[in-house]
Specification:
By secondary structure, the protein is of the alpha+beta class. Helices cover 13% and strands 31% of the residues. It has a six-stranded antiparallel β-sheet with strand order 1-10-7-12-5-2, covered by helices on one side. Strands 6-11-8-9 form a four-stranded antiparallel β-sheet, with no helix packed on it. It has a two-stranded antiparallel ribbon with strand order 3-4. The longest helix has 17 residues, at 21-37. The radius of gyration is 16 Å and the shape is globular. The mean pLDDT is 96. The structure holds N-[(3-hydroxypyridin-2-yl)carbonyl]glycine (MD6) and fe (iii) ion.
């Protein structure tokens, strides 16, 4: 496994090719099992109610949701009102490897992108603690990931995230602005009908 330096934010890690094809397939099977219990739903933005271009689900004791009232973590799926499925063991292992000093992950957000979907520049700051990193896994089509600094106005750099790549936002990079400019359709054969899945593991609450 190699590690590539993109910026000088301490705590930002880009680990291309972290998961080989067989592991990507296993992770995809895990995601399929989760969404069979907690179906992908269509989130909308607070205030405007405008739909996101991505669909979402979660696993873990908490899930990140966005609706007309705001962003928050909650224990139930917004449509089915049932608890989120457990985080699959392959992902808890990833967390233990890449966030060894952090308490267990409490939420794993699943983002599903069709060809035209994107994710605007944002910070992950709805958690009650920023001591733990956010660990992300990409599956399926390649996407252009953009990362800046701690201010929205800071200069940004973009690079491609391929299936099996892992990104960690920890330390000084925990609150860095980042987003997905676009998905490059037809760049992976992992998902039969194309598209991209991104998994982000998070700690929400301070350790007990
Ligand atoms: C995505 N990723 O890759 C969006 N957030 O689809 C994120 O928003 C993200 O990759 C926090 C940490 C790593 C990430
Ligand atoms: Fe994010």
């Amino acid at each position: 496994m190699q590690e590539i330096a993109i910026n000088d934010l301490n705590g930002f890690r880009y680990l291309p090719g972290y998961f080989d094809r067989a592991s990507q397939q296993e992770l995809l099977d895990d995601v399929r099992s989760v969404v069979s219990q907690a179906p992908l739903y269509q989130p909308v933005m607070p205030k405007t109610g405008k739909p996101y271009s991505v669909k979402m689900s979660n696993c873990g004791p908490l899930g990140w949701v966005s609706d007309i009232n705001g962003y928050r973590y909650q224990q139930q799926h917004p449509d089915t009102k049932t608890p989120w499925p457990d985080i699959p063991s392959r992902l808890t292992s990833l967390w233990e490897t890449l966030a060894p000093d952090a308490p267990p992950a409490e939420a794993c957000l699943i983002n599903f992108y069709k060809a035209k979907a994107r994710m605007g520049l944002h910070q992950d700051r709805d958690e009650r603690t920023f001591n733990a990193p956010v660990v992300s896994v990409s599956l399926g089509d390649t996407a252009t990931f953009r990362i800046g600094g701690l201010s929205r106005k800071d200069p940004t750099k973009s690079f491609r995230l391929q299936s099996g790549d892992v990104v960690v936002l920890g330390g000084d990079a925990r609150l860095a602005f980042h987003g997905i400019d676009r998905v490059l359709a037809g760049t992976s054969t992992l998902l039969k009908n194309g598209g991209r899945i991104n998994l982000t593991l998070r700690r929400v609450n301070e350790a007990e």
